[in-house]
Design brief:
Strand content: under 5%
Low-confidence stretches: 217-221
Distance between the termini: 92 Å
Number of strands: 0
Largest sheet: none
Order of helices and strands: HHHHHHHHHH
Structural class: mainly alpha
Number of helices: 10
Radius of gyration: 31 Å
Length: 234
């Protein structure tokens, strides 16, 4: 087939444009709207993160000066308006420590519980549980501590959680369970620095003697550690 003449090509182009021009212009307009919308959304996200960052810096500055009122004011705005920002969770950790330093342990409980609620399935939740469990024990709420640490996924915090469980069982005078938890906290010794092994051995040695039937250790009765054991662990 011979090539179309220049006039025929022009006529074909006009016919195609008459049929498809509206779609082309619509696509171009949609592209412009998408790009403009994305830029506005991206700019909005950046502005929110800057605002959240500023509030977090205000919390840290006020905390460093011991000004709990200013820290609380900034924290309230951060948690209310930017609750999903990464700065909010770090702000909650900072406020929990500040509250504890000022004897406001229930406020510390509340902000750590909020971390767990907002981040139920990641490591931040485990960090919050670890700190919250220690505060609950400080409050004398051993049962609540046990509830908090039940059915947790396996993690690098296992030994520390087990030690706290042991402390909670001691508070409830459930000594066989306490011993079992402490032994779990000792682990196989591979997680160096996870827990103070000598301290846990002292806790085990300080447990009241239990009968062979009650003790989870095997064989025969409560597992105690000698000075030689502690020296070998160093």
């Amino acid at each position: 087939m011979e090539d179309l003449s220049e006039k025929e090509q022009l006529e074909a182009l006009k016919a195609w444009w008459a049929e498809n021009g509206n779609y082309v212009m619509g696509g171009i307009a949609l592209g412009i709207v998408v790009i403009f919308g994305w830029n506005r959304w991206d700019s909005s996200i950046a502005e929110k993160e800057i605002a959240a960052s500023t509030l977090y810096e205000n919390i840290m500055d006020a905390s460093s000066r011991g000004n709990i009122d200013n820290a609380t004011f900034a924290a309230d705005e951060l948690f209310e308006n930017y609750a999903t920002s990464p700065y909010a969770v770090h702000g909650r950790f900072a406020m929990a420590r500040l509250y504890m330093d000022n004897g406001r342990d229930q406020d510390a409980v509340d902000v750590l519980q909020a971390v767990i609620d907002f981040h139920p399935n990641d490591e931040l939740s485990l960090v919050a549980r670890l700190r919250l469990a220690k505060i609950l024990l400080y409050q004398g709420r051993a049962e609540a501590t046990l509830d908090l640490l039940q059915d947790l996924p396996e993690s690098a915090f296992d030994q520390r959680f087990s030690e706290i469980l042991g402390d909670a069982y001691v508070a409830l005078e459930s000594y066989p369970e306490a011993e079992s938890a402490y032994i779990s906290a000792l682990g196989d010794g591979s997680a160096i620095g996870a827990v103070d092994q000598n301290l846990i051995k002292l806790k085990i040695n300080d447990l009241p003697v239990v009968s062979e039937e009650d003790s989870p250790s095997e064989p025969g009765g409560s597992e105690k550690f000698t000075d030689e054991d502690e020296a070998g662990a160093q």
